[in-house]
Every structure is written in C-alpha cells, then in structure tokens.
Amino acid sequence: MDYKTRTRIAGILFDEAVPVGNEVIVLGWIRTVRVSKNVAFVEVNDGSCMKNIQGVIGDPTAFPILEKLGTGAAVRMKGTLKPSEGKGQQYEIDVTELDLVGEADQTFPLQKKRHSFEFLREIAHLRPRTNTFGAVNRIRSKLAYAIHQYYQERGFYYIHTPIISASDCEGAGNLFRVTTHDLADVPVADGEVNWDDDFFGTEAYLTVSGQLEGELLATALGDIYTFGPTFRAENSNTSRHASEFWMIEPEMAFAELDDDMDLAEDFLKWLFQYALEQCADDMEFFDQWIARDEELRKRLEHVVNSSFERVTYTEAVEILEKSKQKFEFPVHWGADLQSEHERYLTEKKFNKPVIVYNYPDEIKAFYMRQNDDGKSVAAMDVLVPGVGEIIGGSQREERYDVLAERIVKKQIGELENYGWYLDIRRYGSVPHAGFGLGFERALMYITGMANIRDVIPFPRVPRWAKF
Ligand code: 4AD
Ligand code: MG
Fold it and tell me: What is the extent of the structural domain holding 80?
C-alpha cells in the first residue's frame, strides 16, 4: 500500500493543504462508523490534531469492507475533499477507496463513551488514542519545543547534565540508587556495603536535579538551561508528585534573586501565551471539557496580562496567621509552607500566581545564598492556583567560606566530595541564580488536568511503573 501520499488531518483542516475538489488520502484510526441503507459515515482521527475527518459513502453496498470496520481499526481512506454539509465540520471526504490497515474488534476498550481517568491509567498504552490524551501529548510536545525556543532566543545554552549522579542536590535523601551489586549477595566490608566494589566505585543515584552541574556550566558560558528527566523517591502519593518528572532549570551567571524572579515570571507568561496561541484547538478542548467551570483560557490570559504577586516568606506567614482560615498544619515563622497554605495564598488571597521569597534557612537547601539577617536565604517559589508550587529557585551562595560552612552545618556530605562545587567559588566566583520548573506541574496548570499522572504518557509513582 502507498502510505507516503497521505495528508495529515491537521494539514487538511488547518493548513488548507488540499484544495476542495482534489483527491486526498487519509491514514488513521476509526472513531465511529455509522452505516445505514443509503449512506455510511466513517469518522477518522490520525492524531495530528483534535478534530476528526468524516468520510461519506453514498453507496454502502459497494464497500463490503464496512462490515469489518469497528472503532479503533486503522484505515486508509481515499476520496475527494469537499465542503461538509454536516454541523461542526468544515470538510468531509467523498470516499472512493477504503482499505483496512489493521483490524480492531469489539474488545477494543475505547468504544465511544466517556471513560474515567482512573480507568484510562490502567490502559495507558491505549489512552493516547482518546481526545484528552491526544491533546495532552500534543501540548507536551509543542511546549517542550517552545521552551527551547524561549531560552535559545535569549542566548541561553542548552546543557545536558548527568542522569546518574553521586550527589544529592536537594539534600532531602529522596534518592533512587543505581548499582550493579548482586542484591542477593551484596559485598560487605567492615559490616557495611562495599561501594568501592560497585560499578562506579562509589554510591550512585538517579539525579534529583541538574542544578549543581548547571552552575558549573553557567559560570563558564554565562546563561544556560537544562531540560531533562529527574527522579525522586519521595513516597508521596499525591496528585502533584511523580517519581520521574521533567524539569527545566535555567541558571544565570551575574544574577541575583530579583533577576531570577523576573526570569521566572517572564518565562511562565511567555509559555502560557504560547499555549493559548499555538495550541488553540487543544486549549479550547481543555477549556470546554476538562476545566469547565474554571474558564481556563480567560484565567491564563489574565495571568499573562498582569503581574505576579511577590511577597516575602515573612509577609506570607503574617497573611496566613491573620486569615480566619483553619489549617491542618499550624503556621508560624520557620514552618515549611504546606500545600493548604500555598493554596490559600494563591487561590483565596491573591487569586493569581504568587512568588514567595526569602525563606527561612532551616527549611531550604544548602546551596542557597544566606541573607544578611542571618536567618533567611535568597530562595523563591512560584505558586499558582490549583497546583501550588510550580517553580523552586534561588540565588546561589557564591562565597566560598559561607558555602563550606553550610555544607558542614546541613550535613550534606564530606566536604572533600564537594571540592568541585566549591572550586567555582575559589576561581572567579560570581553571583548566580536559577530555578527549576516542573514541566508536568506547568502542564497541569495550563491544561487544567487535575492529576500529574495524566499529563505524562507513562507516569511513575509509588507502586506503579507499568508500561
Ligand atoms: O523545588 P525543587 O525541589 O528545586 C530544585 O530541584 C532546584 N534544584 C531547582 C533549581 O533551582 N535549579 O524542584 C523544582 C520544581 C518544583 O517547583 C516542582 O515544580 C517540580 O520541580 N517538582 C516535582 N514535580 C513533580 N513531581 C515531584 N515529585 C516534584 N518535585 C519537584
Ligand atoms: Mg521546592
């Protein structure tokens, strides 16, 4: 069969690639087939866009193949493109040839009806064929591309940081170990596991963040960004935590916390605007079917055209203390902000994205720059309604002595293991800052999808690594 001469449905409907009256070949999967005595309709989707194209068959008896065509089957459909008389569609195909490429029988689980997202997670191998997951995967692709565009156009270099790492960037201990030791017979020396004999000659993990290596590159190339998978063995079974997720981490040399917040705000707004403009069809679907009463697009437009609220951690705590809200976790200066607190700030108090900055040293990572007050660090988190934290970032501690002291104080590991990280503070040290955007959290906010398991094709979460 000749597959090369096909036209994508997106090409037909959006790019007007085929003039009306011309012959067109479509390859795709059947969504519905309706056959009556005098006419048959075959609706095909090829994944190139949300919309289907409908093939019309004037004389069903001339197409005995119709009996074999069920929802889910793959077909090749050839015919003449013409304006549609049906509602809600611009074009249809007057079918002259219809071939079965791959059969699907009655057991195909995605028959035409609404399925719960829970059910669809169990069949994640097939869910990309649904409207929702077609849209999610298309937006993921477009925004991944857009992110590169944003940084490349601004002179940031794309850096590949290692996925296997010997250090714990966040110091939170949520690490997946990488080893070739035989787990049934682990070599032991002096009563402890002998890592010296392991593959890397040291303990190794899947990285939780590319930041530390990103800093090394930023203090050579100026402005850099990473965009890659990161791994966290947090046992949190929530709608916002995944064990494997993608993170975008820009890092700027000669930059302070203000510059970091400015970049975060500009980047997010640009990304939202891009989704609204370049993914309009899929965004309309999310607006109508996923986030129905939230007015998704209006909300994003509003965010793009207004400024984020910026409050210090101290101000945030005051706001929370003064609120009449009952929180499960009490708030006081020094406490980590819980999801309920973040939601109060961003959903109830400000009703827009909020940047909280200058957090207590105690609850933040060792690499963050100590403020002059001696108790807070130059950290910032971006919180958004519905999702909570989507960005975590900071100005980095560029003073050798202060950093060395923090590594010891926070018991991050042996100082000698961080010699490479400290070295850039010994030779031409500069103020620098960066942040990490969780790609899935950004997608949740943009699409209105409520669960992180539904914005990545094959989620990895506690007790789930299927597919
Ligand atoms: O706040 P985090 O832990 O910051 C860092 O990793 C820094 N090293 C980033 C940097 O400054 N270069 O993580 C950054 C973001 C969070 O704000 C959140 O959006 C996302 O990564 N994130 C997760 N997303 C999904 N599942 C998880 N378990 C996540 N943990 C963090
Ligand atoms: Mg964080």
Answer: 9-102
**CB distance 434 to ligand 1 below 6 Å:** yes
Phi, psi (deg, nearest 5) at residue 164: -95, 130
Query: Do residue 83 and residue 165 come from a single domain?
Result: no
Residue 41 covered by a domain: yes
Looking at the fold, whether 98 and 149 belong to one and the same domain comes out as: no
Q: What is the CATH number of the domain that holds 357?
A: 3.30.930.10
Question: What is the distance in A from the centroid of ligand 2 to the CA of 15?
Answer: 42
Which residue has a Cα nearest atom 22 of ligand 1? Answer: 438
The reply to whether ligand 1 has any atom less than 6 angstroms from the CB of 232 is yes
Q: Read off φ and ψ for residue 62, nearest 5 degrees.
A: -80, -5
Same domain, 250 and 369: yes
Q: Looking at the CA of 240, which ligand is closest?
A: 1
- Indicate whether 44 and 189 sit together in one domain: no
**Reduced 3-state DSSP string for 85-132:** CCCCCCEEEEEEEEEEEECCCCCCCCCCCCCCHHHHHHCCCCHHHCHH
pLDDT, tens only, 179-235: 999 999 999 999 999 999 999 999 999 999 999 999 999 999 999 999 999 999 998
Overall number of domains in the chain: 2
Residues 138 and 61 in one domain: no
Asked if residue 366 has pLDDT above 80, the reply is yes
pLDDT digits (tens, 9 = 90+) for 429-452: 999 999 999 999 999 999 999 999
Query: What is the pTM (predicted TM-score) of this model?
Result: 0.97
Ligand 1 contacts CB of residue 435 (under 6 A): yes
pLDDT tens-digit map of 88-118:
789 999 999 999 999 999 999 998 788 999 9
CB contact burial 426-442 (16+ within 10 A = b; e otherwise): eeebebbbbbbbbbbbb
